[in-house]
Write a structure and sequence with these properties.
The protein is α/β, with parallel strands linked by helices. The protein contains nine helices and ten strands. The protein is 37% helix and 27% strand. Strand 9 and strand 10 form a beta hairpin.
Amino acid sequence: MNSTTPAIAFEGVEKNFGSLKVLKGISGEIYRGEVVAVIGSSGCGKSTLLRCFNRLEAINGGRLVVNDIDISRPNLNRNVLRQLRSQVGMVFQQFNLFPHLNVLDNLTLAQQKVLGKSKKESAQLAAQYLEKVGLSEKANVYPEQLSGGQKQRVAIARSLCMNPQIMLFDEPTSALDPELVGEVLRVMQQLAADGMTMIVVTHEMLFAREVANRVMFLHQGQIEEQGSPREVLVSPRSDRLRTFLSRLNPDLDHQ
């Protein structure tokens, strides 16, 4: 992990939806090669913060720099936005695969349309990443023929095909049956071991504890507490965090 170069830097970031203030002047840095788990109750601003990082949501105030690109401006040039999206991959809760395309085509479409790669080149890269997520044999099947865990692994492979420098995960296992969660987390664990910069909104405390370098606890649009997994999950300082952890998993070993 390069501790001197932020992959993402945000200062005083505000995000409103009408009169609802979701992010309230939030500030922080995420470093290259770091894995940050973002936790907190529903409605605390976790997913909104993540969506701001790749400009799916434009911020209403403050400054936000992602991979040396200042995306704070209200009207971003289309080429700048395309550059950002090619560098920042995102994996959603509901997979977002194209149902009318087979797995291979799901992985090659953006490579050809956005990166301008040839059909052959994009297919070779797709095969490489399907192997990485353990789904080489599924290249020609359609999403409806896959389990939830397989769909999410395809979604991860699709993002990796764009050669991102940062990966955002928005509760990637929350739509999965419990027995399928492990196969997705193992892929994410391997990405972390490979040095990928990752920001993961998650309720999987075991993943946060074992894989993340840092855990960030959000409460009502602000960072209530952050630190190493041991500091945040085992020895929380704030009453709000202790309450959150006890409600989420009464058996978690924190004191």
